[in-house]
Each structure stands twice: as structure tokens, then as C-alpha cells.
Amino acid sequence: TFAPQECVDKIRAKVKANAGQQAPSHVIQTRSMTAAKSRSTTKKSSKQTVVPIIAAHQASSPPSIKDKKVDAATDATDTPEVLTVLGKTIHMIDPDRKVFVIDLLSPEACDEIRMMADNHTRNAKKEAEVWRTLYTYTKMDLPVVEVKDMVSKYTDKILNDVKKIVGVIFGMRRDAMRLRPRSWKEPHLLLYQALDGKPHHTGIEMHYDGCDVTWQAMLTRQDEYEGGGTYFRCLRKTIRLKQGQVLVHPGELYHKGIDITYGVRCLLVCFTDGMNPKILDDSRQEDDDPKYEANVLVC
């Protein structure tokens, strides 16, 4: 689950070579805005910070995709609002559809989760018995229940933290605490890789999860892969996570895993049921257009 050092060196060299060039207009990073807003809201409680946006959107239904004029080169410049909820920084990608990103895990936690998975793989008789197809569109999955101590040390706490934050964002605190992994397979590790001599699994086609709420945690550093991200048809945006961030969204929203072109990308994914978010996807297949996948948002 870790990219080879030569892979990291190549990607870092490319980034360094492009350091003096201006970023494309369709790619926006919001970290500096996050820091500024965090400093300006340190005296406010998490409840005070989040209540106004919750109240503003609880009674409204998501706007139709046809109601929004979208330009492929500039749409991603709609910077998300940054909130503090239960002590965690939240990037509200779409307040109506309840798509948001949580700054949740430390780099050390992400790396240890991957090391635990790698140790599990090395101890197995055959790697193919470890990383395998659990779902229709994926090829390299690993249920965390099979990895020694991962549930008790990490994933139970992650699930509990996400449920509490979902309860606040959705305004459904009691219902959110009833969210449970939908099967024994959940959560599961999902591995993408594009390396010579390794089985290629680079992305996932357009689909919806069919659960109530999905969350995915990024375990990989951005210098370990190129490309990638989660594209949402109804948002016409690709969300590209940084290590330790968790993307949360209703399971009915159509999305796809953008192909990585090089390296290794590893995620911790969980499909949960038990709370009806009452949010459906209003997009249609004819709304698909590859040019919108270039609207990349990095929180």
C-alpha cells in the first residue's frame, strides 16, 4: 500500500519542476482559506459555528443540476465553506447534498493502518487471497475485520467520529448514531495501483453505492500517485483528498473513481445504513461529460 521510493521521487521531481508555473484555473486548493478561517473562529464553539449553515439548508432540497450554469474551466473555484464541528475542521463541498470533507486522521495513523495491511499481506500464503474483488466495480479490496487489531485500534473510532459529525451536519444526531456498516465486509481497504510488474487497478466507473451514507478516508500521501480523485456527476466536480481526510456523502449520489496514471492510492471505505438522509441524485446519464472531471477541488 506504499508507493516505491522511486515512484515518489519521480512524482516529487515533477512537482518541483512545475513549482514556478501557475496552477490551472480549474484546480483550486483551499488549505490557506482553511487556516485563515480556523484562526478567525477559535473563540467560537463548534455548535455556534455549524448551526447557521445547518439551519439555512435543512428545509431546502438540493438544486437541480439543470438550474446551475456550469463552466468546465471555472466551476471548481466555488470554494467550500469551512466549519469547526466537534473540534474537527469540515469543508462543506455541497451543503444541500451534504457532501463534505473532514480533516480527521494524522499521517502517522494513516501510515500505521497501511503497515498493518501490508504485514497482513506478507503473512498470507497468497496475495490474491488478501486483495480481492468484494464488489462489482472494484478489484483490490480487503475487509479490515481480517487484519489483526485494525478494528479495535482504528476503524471503530473512525466510524464513531464520523457518525457524530454526520449527525450534526445532517441535523439528525439521534438517527446518525444508528448508522452501522452494512455487512461484514465494512469497512474495507481499497487499493489502486499503476506500477510496472503489479496488477493494475486504476479507477472505478460511474456508480452509486445504494447505502444511506458512505465515507472514505485517504491513507496515501499526494506524492505517491498521479491523477485520481472522486468525481460526482451532480456536482460536476472531482474531489481530491489529502492524507488523513475523510469524504462523506449520501450513498445515492452517482460518482466514479478517477483513474490514477502512476503510483499507489489506498483508501479506507465504509458503506453504512440506519439513517435515511432523504437525499437523492437528480443528475442523469446524459449529464456526463469528461470535461467536468477536470474541475478538481483540493481541500
Based on secondary structure, the structural category is: alpha+beta
The helix/strand series, from N terminus to C terminus, equals: HEHHEEEHEHHEEEEEEEEEEE
Envelope shape: globular
Radius of gyration over alpha carbons? 19 Å
Low-pLDDT runs of 5+ residues are: 31-60, 65-76
Oligomer: single chain
Q: Which percent bin holds the helix content?
A: 25-40%
Q: Tell me the major beta sheet.
A: 10 strands, antiparallel
Percentage of β-strand residues: 25-35%
Instruction: Write down the overall mean pLDDT.
Output: 85
How many beta-strand segments?
Answer: 16
> What is the distance, rounded to the nearest whole angstrom, between the alpha carbons of the first and last residues?
23 Å
Tally of contiguous helical segments: 6
